[in-house]
Design a protein that fits this description.
It is a single chain. By secondary structure, the chain is an alpha+beta fold. Among the domains are: 82 residues, Pdz3 Domain (Roll), CATH 2.30.42.10; 195 residues, 2-enoyl-CoA Hydratase, Chain A, domain 1 (Alpha-Beta Complex). Helix content is 24%, strand content 28%. The chain has eleven helices and 23 strands. The strands form seven sheets. Strands 14-15-16-19-20-23 form a six-stranded mixed β-sheet, with helices on both faces. The radius of gyration is 24 Å and the shape is globular. The two termini are 41 Å apart.
Amino acid sequence: MPISSRSKLIPLYAALAVFFVGAAFFAGVSVGIDSTPTVDQSASVLNKDGAVSVDFAPFWKAWNVLSEKFVPASTTAPVVDDSARVWGAIEGLAESVGDPYTVFLPPEETRMFFENVEGNFQGVGMEVGIRHDILTVIAPLKGTPAEKAGILPGDKIIQIDDTSTARLSIDEAVQRIRGEKGTSVKLKLVREDVDEPIDVTVIRDVIEVPTIETEVTSVKASDDTDESTSPLVNNVYVLRLFSFTGDSTKRFADALRDFAKSGTNKLIIDLRGNPGGFLESAVDMASWFLPSGKIIVRQEGSKSEEDKVWRSKGYDIFTDNLKLVVLVNGGSASASEILAGALSEHGAATVVGTQTFGKGSVQELVEITPDTALKVTVARWLTPNGKSISEEGITPDVVVSMSSEDIKAKKDPQLAKAIEILTKE
């Protein structure tokens, strides 16, 4: 995605590693908040055609009533100045569209946002999203406090410390869970196959986002093969991709070169627990396996904007002899879903695992004042065949579940099925 000098492509790792793929276009907007406004009660907003679209008179009447009549019920109640009332009104406006990813960031939240983008990240190391109106773990990042505490993709967070998450936005939840290294946060989780809620205390730390791990797994050609008398062994190259960060494209390319030298044609790309990141990284990675011009992802925006299409760059270095499986689960989101969906729908890979999270929207960060911003959903992702990632996620070609008992026993039936598919004659 091209980035102008006035825009930024930002994956937000924050305390919880909350990613979004999108551009932040900054445009200053002046907001007068120094005194109670004197406003024509018939004030209205015109749409782009010059026609009246909404009458603001009720808003200004309510503003003036509060200014003239409101008295705090307690003498110890905090004083709410005009700027706080403006921020509250914009928060309500953003909330009214009913999209959990469209939120207003007041000054303090905006400051924290850019600290997270530009500096070190301290928190628990997981991404969250909203699923069925409930704050849900998309994925804990590998090696982070969240993973070490046993938090799993799909866990529903119903309480943060003593606060219910029922009416918290994602950004409010992030601010409550993030914090300085060494401090703790208590989460109450609901897990699908566990009867009672689970209380987990996580000690915050500096979060380093992992990128890639690789290994070559050797598997006997059949269970009846005697390794002492037969050399028939299948080597499977496993590439585990944990995030789509700025340097992931180079590391992915390096891993593919290593795969090409390994002597095997069997490759597994493991996207389980990968919450996404940069769109451009997903496009670049898919281009290693697809001919030039093949559609990787479609972007469907507002009616006033033309839809966009991202196509393969045509690296396409592998022959038809390549055997490829992509592993996904409920923790695979955003860029992971774009990559898996493109490879599956073009027949380049078999996708194995469980339904992905379904995070297929694009957020743009717009400056409202010099110290506030609006994060607004501006588009949604569609697979090459036009399926909405947000509505449907990616359905694996071969569905294989993995239970909590499998995890405790350190069994991986999804990986086992992938190896079985690749080594089958």
